[in-house]
Amino acid sequence: MLDPRVAKQAQILTHYCLEVKPGDRIAVNGTVLAEPLLLALQREILRAGGYPHVMASIPGLDAIFMEEANDDQLQYVSPFFQIPIEQFEGLIRVEAAANTRQLSNVDPARIARRGKAMGPVMQTYMERQARGDLRWVVTLFPTPAHAQDAEMSLREFEDYTFGAMYADEEDPVERWQEVHRQQQRLVDWLEGKREVKVQGPDVDLKLSIDGRRFVNSDGRNNMPSGEIFTSPVEDSVNGWIRFSYPAIHTGVEVDGIELWFENGRITKASAAKNEAFLIQALDLDPGARYLGEFAVGTNTRIDRFIGNILFDEKLGGTIHLAIGAGYPETGGKNKSAIHWDMLCDMKAGGQIIVDGELFYESGEFRI
Predict the structure, then answer these.
(1) How far apart are CA 103 and CA 63, in angstroms?
(2) 89 and 25 in contact (C-beta within 8 Å)?
(3) Same domain flag for 244 and 354
(4) 359/56 Cα distance (integer angstroms)
(5) Residue that terminates a domain, selected from 124, 142, 170
(6) 3-state DSSP helix/strand/coil % of the chain, to nearest 5
(7) Per-residue pLDDT tens for 154-166?
(8) Which residues pair with 53 in a beta bridge?
(9) What average pLDDT score do residues 9-38 get?
């Protein structure tokens, strides 16, 4: 019997996140472990008049590819991946891993080569979604692997996942509309502001948002969501930050990261664990040493770090920065084949000061 929360998740994704219309071509990517949600999405997209293209993969394919592919194969981009990004009206990506660490021991140089090959496709993706030509959403279907990362039983993790999406409520769409209204007040206040200072036990940064706009992340593109974000002026970031939680990229966990910025560029970086992987990522291309995102998490139902960035970056009481590609819709100009989010806890006295006015302190908005 289908969990009614899975049916609601499919309805949220189809009718709220993507607002599927008759004739829309929608690519749905996920592993076979997400079968209940993939089937529910097939049904909902068809009912909305769309054309679903469900591309279900088998767990372990990526690990075999990264182990066996030669250099030419690493740089090959499948048309099955390109066409939806270049032509379709919508994309739904469902995370449903059997092993979230399957790429942990892959040579970082191979991961970097693969990431560089995907750069042009990623740029097309960023440009189309900024123009509104491509609607997209990323979500998660709870699996034992994700539950283990979160140090929960599968039942606990299911409750946590669906609770963060409001899929356990009678009218989840209304709840997401309320999130939109609350965050829009913050975004409107930030309109036209110029300078941001971030201070606290683990951060001392100054950056410019002059000419940039904040985006209200209200569940349309990430489900769950709950954040406001922008791309800072590329050469404006100065100072230091120590990230409070492990940063995970392509299944590799890097812990104890500290970054130093001078005129926007990361000039020094260190990590307590997997520092070589961090440096390899920063050297992927010239844009990887600049910030593509500055954001504040607002979802109070996400109340703990679980090792999944879809949830963790929305964690109430935190900020996150992303190295690499910026968001064109915010005015961001930085180009890179990487976009890697890293979190800093602000609950113990962290402050955000905007144009000299206290905007945020110890996890609470003060305006």
Answers:
(1) 6
(2) yes
(3) yes
(4) 44
(5) 170
(6) 35, 30, 35
(7) 999 999 999 999 9
(8) 27
(9) 97
Residue the block writes with tokens 């032509």: 87
* Count of domains observed in the chain: 2
Does the structure show a pLDDT above 90 at 40? yes
For residues 205 and 305, is the Cβ–Cβ distance under 8 A? no
What is the C-alpha separation between 264 and 344, in angstroms, rounded? 18
Closest by CA to 291, choosing from 250, 243, 328, 341, is 341
Q: Phi/psi at 366 (nearest 5 deg)? A: -110, 0
Q: Is residue 111 over pLDDT 90?
A: no
Rounded Cα–Cα distance for residues 232 and 321 (Å): 10
| Same domain, residue pair 191 and 316 | yes
Domain boundary among 170, 189, 209: 170
Q: Note whether 108 and 205 are same-domain residues.
A: no
Could you tell me the pLDDT band of residue 72, with boundaries at 50, 70 and 90?
Answer: very high
What's the CATH number where 67 sits?
A: 3.40.1830.10
CB 37 within 8 A of CB 64: no
> 184: domain range?
178-365
Tokens coding 228:
């406001």
Q: Which residue has the tokens 């189309």?
A: 128
- Residues 319 and 198: beta-carbon distance below 8 Å: yes
The residues near 174 (Cβ < 8 Å, ≥ 6 apart) are none
Question: Kind and range of the H or E element at 38?
Answer: helix 35-47
The first and second tokens of residue 147, run together, are 């539950």
